[in-house]
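Protein in question kept in full:
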Amino acid sequence: MARNVIRLAQLGGYLVRASDPPPGNTMMWCGMRHLTDIRIGYELALKRCG
């Protein structure tokens, strides 16, 4: 679970440096928005191409 949280935060711009604190709400929110954009793009591509 922790690995998935870090991956989601990375989509939002979290850099995962050793000295960084854990990702906060802003990084998680940005990551969720980016993941949603990726999902919508994928669904649109399926409708057009497949």
Q: What stands out?
A: Residues 2-49 form one domain. Residues 6 and 23 are 7 Å apart (CA to CA). The two ends are 33 Å apart (CA to CA).
